[in-house]
Amino acid sequence: MKHLEQAGKRVLVLLFVVMMFPAGMVSADMDTNSPVKILLKIKDLNTTLDAVDSFVESGPKPSAMLRGMIQGTDWIDPVRAIVLGVDMSGEKPSATLLIPYLVENEDFQATFGAQSREDYYIMSVPPGAATPISEKVEQTLVLSSATAPNNAISVEVAVGALLSESRDKIDAMVGGLEEKMAGLQGQSAPAGEVDFNEIADGLIATFGQLKSMTFGVDISSDELNFATETAAEDQTDLSRLFSEAGNTSRFNHYTPKGHLTYKTRSFDMDTMMGLIVSAFGKAYDAMGFNVTELSRIAFNFTGEAAGSVSYDTESMKIEGIHVLKKDAEANDFVEKVYLPWIDNYGNALAGIYKDNSDTDPGEVFTRLPDIAIDGIKVYGMKLRIIAGAAPNDGQSAGKPVMTEAVFYVTTIGDMVLTAPSQNRMAELITIAKSTTVQPDSGPLVVYEMDMDGYFEYMRQMIPDSGAVFANMPPLGKLVSTMNVGGGRAFTSTRMRTDFIKQMIAMAGQQNSGPVPDESPEPVTPRPKPESAKPAAASRPAEPAVKDANYWIDKGNLVSTYGNDISAVRFYAEALKKDPMNSSAYFNMGVSYGELEEFDKALDAINRAIELNPANSNYYYARGRVYLMAGNTAKADNDFRTAVEMGNTDAKAYLERTEK
Description:
Blueprint: H1 3-20, E1 36-42, H2 45-53, H3 64-69, E2 82-87, E3 94-100, H4 106-112, E4 115-116, E5 120-125, H5 135-146, E6 153-157, H6 159-165, H7 167-185, H8 196-207, E7 210-219, E8 223-232, H9 237-241, E9 248-249, E10 260-264, H10 269-287, H11 291-298, E11 301-311, E12 316-324, H12 330-357, E13 365-373, E14 376-389, E15 400-412, E16 415-419, H13 422-434, E17 438-439, E18 445-450, H14 451-461, H15 467-470, E19 477-485, E20 488-496, H16 497-511, H17 548-560, H18 564-577, H19 582-594, H20 598-611, H21 616-629, H22 632-644, H23 648-657
Antiparallel strand pairs: 1-2, 1-6, 2-3, 3-5, 4-5, 6-7, 7-8, 8-20, 9-17, 10-11, 10-18, 11-12, 12-16, 13-14, 14-15, 15-16, 18-19, 19-20
Helix pairs in contact: 1-7, 1-8, 1-10, 8-10, 10-11, 17-18, 17-19, 18-19, 19-20, 19-21, 20-21, 21-22, 22-23
């Protein structure tokens, strides 16, 4: 394994470990002193579920199972938020759920083992977890529930505090994952090649400037909106980047053409590139990419720009107008700065690829003859970009897959123009000459993606894609915006829901075809609880007499949703009513097995067999407990006994495992 692949994979492990701690976006106003560092909030669950259900125009609704599981939503307070908080301060993360209610729902409380307060339920997650809920955690959730989120669903994380508190865990995880990766590769990392502590320091120092973030989703009948809000710590580079931006634009009348288009006002380019180098410079260095060299060219620009990128089956098309800083030498910029940079950088990338793949990608950068348009010197060039490696077909495996970009570059005043053809360059020159600086109160950044055009390109690139791309419904545009102000950054990405509806309908039609004849991997299914009843969407009336069957049904219900601790308690109530009830013993044994209390599980199932030795399910269940406990000989004996008695589950299991 060559240096790039070794270092690259290990660096990606580090990036994953550091980034997984603030994963999900952070709340811009979280109490960073609370032990809860991650909050999931749901506003008006019923309305949100109705919106999700609207995506499916026919057939079962996606929310049906959830509504049944929680026994409807009419009892939940729609004004206050449902809140899930994650406390990362212990050895393992612990999660706590708060659900505000209008009226008590005793069935929900019993099913999930929730604790009832004055007007809300609170419980550990997963249900039945014996994790104590601290007063500070509960207070945080109560206050958070009372503050309705801006979005239907939001995830809030205190990034800086979380990274600070988790540094020891990050270091341990990085070390552990790197050792495992080195073991999988059959070798250790070359000494001195990569300083992972240095890389981690850069990442944490940069992302530690984040005070908080919020990631939100709004769902309506016609649009999905994904939004983020990020707050930086005061007096930091990130805070300055999120506070300073230009308020004018000269591109209000320039409409770029392409699959992906962008427009930006000016911003603090120096600070942004400094943060990128600080966060990712060492990581990219370890992979062989000099991000500092990239920043050197970026420092010449103000950030104000407009342009596009498009693809076809043979090439990539790039166009744009980018504004230079006043101190940049615009007249000589292309010849003295841009061309040497792109030549050196392109050939450096080619050398890295050659060193690490034993394959020569050929010449990456080629100058084309210079031309003149309207008396203006225009520089032509061709850049061959490595798009990936060929599949392992025995002949071309590992060889680079290249895509070509021919483009022309020139300057008009303080603007650098890039175009994919001479004709388009002539049009851009005319546009650039007519630009005027105007006030602009719109978003700092606007990205638009022509989804229809992009998927048409994908269809052409993958001829065997069949109906996947050929039958795509109209997708429209994916529009993303970004704004900054007051030390905060705001983003929004919108897409049409009618596209999602059509995709779901198309997937449903494809899934209705013949089922492929493929056997699943051998598994040992959990025996079905006897007399199990599905949860109802509305709460049934309480029976006049709570006999053994009533408590068995209660136990079966909560065990279906994973709360085996409460299930055992309900089965014990059933045995108080009927001490000779084999079904109660059987189901109690199954739940003890799920809790990995195998001795208690075997005692209960043995008692069930004593009371009803003719029930094959009991032998199958005991075999399953033996299997989980590691006694394969006794497990196999019980499975075969169950088969002799006609048990189809045991027969199916043995047939799969004996293939």
